Amino acid sequence: MRPWIPFLLDAPAAIAEASTAPARPMIDYLWVVCAIALVMLMQIGFLLLECGQVRSKSSINVAQKNLADFTVSIGLFWLVGFSLMFGPSFVGWVGFGLDEFIINRPDAWTLIFFVFQAVFCGTAATIVAGALAERCTFWGYVMIAGLIGLLIYPVAGHWAWGNLLHSDNETFLTSLGFMDFAGSTVVHGTGAWVALAAVMVIGARRGRFDPDGTVNPVTGHNPVLSGAGAILIAVGWIGFNGGSLLAVDEGLLQIVANTVMATVAGAFAGIVYTLFDNGPHIRIDRTVNGLLGGLVGVTAGCNVFGLADAVFVGIIGSTVAQVGNDWLLRRGVDDVVGAIGVHGFAGVIGTFLVAVLAPSDQLVAGTRLDQVFAQVVGIALFFVWSFGVGYLLITLLNRWMPLRVSAEDEYIGLNTAEHGVTLGSGYLQSAMMDMLLADDLDAELIKVDPGDENAELSELFNLLLLRLKGEGIISDSIARERLQELQRKRELEFSLISDIETMIDQAVDGNLTGRLPVSKTTGIIRSVCVGMNRLFDVVGEVTDEMKTALGFLAAGDLSFELNSRADGEFAELASRYNQSIQRLRENRDNSAAAMSTLTDETRITADRAAEILNDIERASDQARRIVNVIDEIAGKTNLLALNASIEASRSGTAGKAFAVVADQVRTLSGRVADASADIDRVMSSNNALVLDGSQAIENVREALDRIDARIKDLMSSLDQAA
């Protein structure tokens, strides 16, 4: 085992040991050295590209972060990361070896291999800088870059490339047959998913999105730098892809050709995309990101693709990068340079297309279906690790040391806030020229947009113009006073921003008592404060009234109505609530009236039925009396018949007796006939009364049905109102 530290004092011994390493063609060493230089050239390209795509007030900060992440990530990769990535594998998930830990006195090939892999690590780290530009603290970003070089990139890289230095290492993805030749997923995907996690933790730049989600355009201060940076990156990418072969043979020529053609195809696809997206205006950032998306896409399979495949992958990678960035932007993800779409989304599609386009005899996993499975597993695993662990560690880091700069620092720019340097602009040249060429000094003041990087210069120019306007020259003391007033105004604006954020946070928690200090403000700022306070007063009143209204409703009392003094949606809410209450009351009153009417109708119907029943009862009594008369007549008739029988038994006087009996029988028969007629009439009358009674009962039944229907209507109205 080699000692760790003596190599610092024993360089000759290290050289002697290196000379005993297995020999490789010197051309391989020279090519890898050239590739290292080309990959380092990519760092210059990233620096220029990112600086050009941010506003000038933070461009120095972006440049410094690119220098710092390259330094810190490679330093920690040398210290720990190289061992985790290429040391002897521990169950296929992480490497560790003292020979690789703190690169001691390696042989010549291990030494050059380490440097090449170290600049790859630097590339993964620098992807995050552009995504987080303009609102992340310098030291916070340095810590994120350190996490990438120390842990996130080495561990993930071991799964796919852990056998490059020690061929007997059997890691998880290498045993599965995962193919990513130069790092579409291993390098670029890792950097992109960490960038996504960081952007989600830190949030968007102030003013990038309106409260309703509308995207406000922010233009980089120097697209020329971005274009130059993209070309440098493309040149360096020849070393990035070609150097991954680690040798010089015929395969190198195919790799270089594929890289160049994917560059061309990606840039062309970017131009076409911007024509469809922006009409006649061709945006250089679309071309730049299209070029880079094509390069990222081809990187995974540049060693197995043909030229036509490389062109196709370049077009697809470019388009996916653009679509992915637009999709993220619509969801509130503020990636300043589009790094997530370029390095993440394009990396995913490029890695997947290896399984689709590579020749069957060059598929490591076996069948094409097996290769698709291996690619999908590798893509998913890198995302879960890089985004998941990145999000967790960055969240914890943000709790320990806030990663976002203050609102004031973001407003004045990170050049001034973190580096004490301010960059000017030629933005005011046209206005100044108009002033100098005018016949008088009656020029309009420049409109100051607080979100514009030239806001400070515009305000100073307005002060200068105020000194020269009017009947005479404004005194220096007045100018100084106005300058001091401007400074106080700016400080007050920052204070108000903080107060408004506090009020909103309290409101989210249900506390509506916060108010802005109106007495210290003037002009439009005072109007804003008054408006905010009035808004919270109205919201508080409406909230209290709603609570009271709910209490009345719970008690079944419909007498309470909301105060509609509020404006806008609050007035509409109060009006709609009051209308609902009014409908409830009307339904209740109408239902009560309907119930009363139906009750009266039922009562009248019932009284009528009672009268009819009484008539039926009286008729029945008459029938009973008639029946009694008939019974009486029948009795007397029987008696007469008996007497007639007795008289018939007598002699002599029979004729006379029978004549008397006959007269009486005839009389009784007449009375019986009359009684029978009366009975018929009474029974007919009773039948009519019975029919009337039946109809009355039917009327009662119909009235009850109407009552039931009205009750159902009332219940339906109550449900709709609720």
Count helical runs. 21
Strand content: under 5%
Order of helices and strands: HHHEEHHHHHHHHHHHHHHHHHH
- Number of beta-strand segments: 2
Question: Can you tell me the overall shape?
Answer: elongated
First-to-last CA distance: 81 Å
What is the mean predicted local confidence, pLDDT? 79
Which class best fits the helix and strand makeup? Answer: mainly alpha
Q: Can you list the strand order of the major beta sheet?
A: 1-2
Rg over C-alpha atoms, rounded to the nearest angstrom: 50 Å
> In which range does the helix fraction lie?
over 70%
Low-confidence stretches: 1-21
Commentary on this structure:
With 722 residues, the chain is an all-alpha fold. Helix content is 73%, strand content 1%. The protein is built from 21 helices and two strands. It has helices at 11-18, 26-52, 59-86, 108-131, 138-161, 172-176, 184-202, 223-243, 250-278, 284-299, 307-330, 339-357, 368-400, 407-412, 414-419, 429-437, 455-468, 476-508, 523-554, 568-648, 654-721; strands at 89-90, 94-95. A two-stranded antiparallel sheet has the order 1-2. Helix 10 (284-299) packs across helix 11 (307-330). The chain is elongated and about 170 Å long. The model is unreliable at 1-21 (pLDDT under 50).
